[in-house]
Specification:
This protein has twelve helices and seven strands. The protein is α/β, with parallel strands linked by helices. The protein has one domain: Vaccinia Virus protein VP39 (Rossmann fold), CATH 3.40.50. A seven-stranded mixed sheet has the order 3-2-1-4-5-7-6, sandwiched between helices. Helix 1 (about 1-20) packs parallel to helix 6 (about 115-125) and helix 7 (about 165-175) packs across helix 10 (about 215-225). The radius of gyration is 17 Å and the shape is globular.
Length: about 260
């Protein structure tokens, strides 16, 4: 079942980037519905906490409207740092991180979908962004050496993993001592109905795979993280209710800022 769900998610996000449209987690397009693009994507980005300047400072096509927050806002990135973005998509958060760490820093984007990696690489080439590298791989087994990163970020992706404990453990592995985790993701706000848990489309829409806050904290503690905080954002219900209209998703899940240190 886990393999089937991961395969469905991979196929769904390949379809999103190949179609050149925004759907699923973030923009909230219903299957077969009208896509959201242009001004709508920018409006959604403002809801997530990005500035208008940030939204206009990345290559066209990098922002697919797939997030649930702004990990840049809590990562406190510094020049010269090495950053790893788990589930980097078409490169949006990577390009913003690349500006913050500068030429002396480095950003790695990890994504399991070949089509997303290809799109991100094209986007980097189009603006000659040289301090970012996109790598095909799974976030449960990050294809980077131990103690590579100063910061690990992610935006509405860990909830998609069938083995979140392994994601946190591998994120801890690639962090240097003193490194930090800064993630925007979805946690549950109420018990998830079984029919939603079994719905692969709801899983790919970042709804069905969410974990409770206490479980998220336990997984992070087991991985070794310290200074853990999971802070739900009540205003996220306004955009979550657009993800799957009629599903009551905004009553079941909530976006949260998730932090930890090594």
């Amino acid at each position: 079942m886990e393999k089937d769900t991961k395969g469905f998610v991979k196929q769904r996000y390949a379809e999103i980037v190949l179609a050149g449209r925004e759907a699923g987690c973030g923009c909230g397009e219903e299957p077969g519905g009208a896509s959201c693009c242009g001004d709508k994507v920018d409006s959604y980005g403002l809801q997530l906490g990005y500035s208008a300047e940030e939204l206009s400072s990345v290559p066209e096509g990098a922002n697919l409207g797939l997030g649930c927050g702004n990990p840049q806002a809590i990562a406190e990135l510094q020049p010269g740092e090495v950053v790893v973005d788990l589930g980097s998509g078409a490169g949006f958060d990577c390009f913003l991180a690349a500006r913050q760490v500068g030429a002396s820093g480095k950003v790695y984007g990890i994504d399991m979908t070949e089509e997303m990696i290809e799109a991100a690489r094209r986007n980097a080439q189009s603006w000659d962004i040289t301090n970012v590298e996109f790598i095909l791989g799974e976030i449960e087994s990050i294809p980077l050496p131990d103690e590579t990163a100063d910061v690990v970020i992610s935006n509405c992706v860990i909830n998609l993993s069938p083995d979140k404990a392994k994601v946190f453990a591998d994120a801890y592995r690639i962090l240097r001592p003193g490194g930090r985790l800064a993630v925007s993701d979805i946690v549950t706000a109420a018990d998830m109905p079984e029919e939603i848990k079994r719905d692969q489309m709801m899983h790919s829409a970042c709804i069905a795979g969410a974990s409770p806050i206490d479980e998220t904290i336990r997984m992070m503690e087991a991985a070794g993280f310290k200074d853990i905080s999971v802070e739900p954002k009540g205003d996220s219900r306004e955009f979550i209710k657009t993800w799957a209209p009629g599903s009551r998703a905004e009553e079941l899940i909530i976006s949260a800022d998730i932090r930890g240190s090594k």
